[in-house]
Amino acid sequence: MKLGFIGTGALTAAIVTGLRSAADRSVSVVLSPRNEEIAASLASRYQDVRVASDNQAVLDDCDTVMLAVRPQIAHEVVPDLRFRPDHHVVSLIATLPLETIATLTAPAGHVTKALPMPMIAHRQGATIIYPPDPAVAALFGALGQVIEVEDPGKFDALSVVTATYASYFKYLDTIHGWLKDRGVESAQARDYIACLFKALASAPEAAPGADFMHLAEEYATRGGINEQVLRALTDRRVFEVFSDSLDDVHRRIAAA
Length: 256
Ligand SMILES: NC(=O)c1ccc[n+]([C@@H]2O[C@H](COP(=O)([O-])OP(=O)(O)OC[C@H]3O[C@@H](n4cnc5c(N)ncnc54)[C@H](OP(=O)(O)O)[C@@H]3O)[C@@H](O)[C@H]2O)c1
Fold this sequence. Notes:
Number of strands: 8
Helix content: 40-55%
Low-confidence stretches: none
CATH superfamily of the largest domain: NAD(P)-binding Rossmann-like Domain
Distance between the termini: 32 Å
Radius of gyration: 21 Å
Largest sheet: 8 strands, mixed
Bound molecules: NADP nicotinamide-adenine-dinucleotide phosphate
CATH architecture of the largest domain: 3-Layer(aba) Sandwich
């Protein structure tokens, strides 16, 4: 596969880093020259990664094109590019519908949406793909898990999950701040929290049949301290507010 990227930013850097750490060397990479610094750094670090002279040169030299610019830039840049009917376009721009991408990239005959995450650099996390596509699934499958969906509504709903990372770290930061206020040394508190939550993160894999509420109940021993915190947050409607915020993000994505 000759893989080109229009837009060499954070996500492209993560994908190329992941690709180059995988054993498979059958994918050569051609990058658009923006961002200049990131493109030059990737090309200097990895074999078979080069920087094209401009966006059109990327297209002319690849069979698969990843669109990795911000949505507003896509509307400015993509209509000026000359796609070929045999191009396979993979849009990483989560908020643009497949139909919009297909119109912008006509006459490219094959368009797929993919939503990888920056942890793909370490070949972790999962990529959502719509519609299912064996070549795109194989590419991202080498870099983590792949979840293929047949329905754009499911793609949008799954993409809402990616809006929750910052709150997760704020949750951990609240525990960390509380410990520091009680005199626990910052690094020690951080290590302890990171270690415990790493173990908790592997609990669903260790108990594949158990849903999350089942795991919550397992930890919430009757009359115990986990039950106390869970009840306090539930009574103050923290989880309802959280769920409402997911609705808000979903509406925003659907309206984009
Ligand atoms: N980062 C994530 O976690 C993530 C996750 C899922 C999906 N996405 C989506 O993936 C896309 C890329 O995200 P990102 O985080 O990689 O964004 P980013 O870091 O801002 O990268 C976008 C890149 O596009 C370049 N660019 C600007 N104008 C250009 C042009 N005319 N031609 C070619 N390249 C141009 C920018 O270069 P300059 O720096 O020179 O302006 C920048 O390097 C976005 O649509 C985003 O919504 C991102």
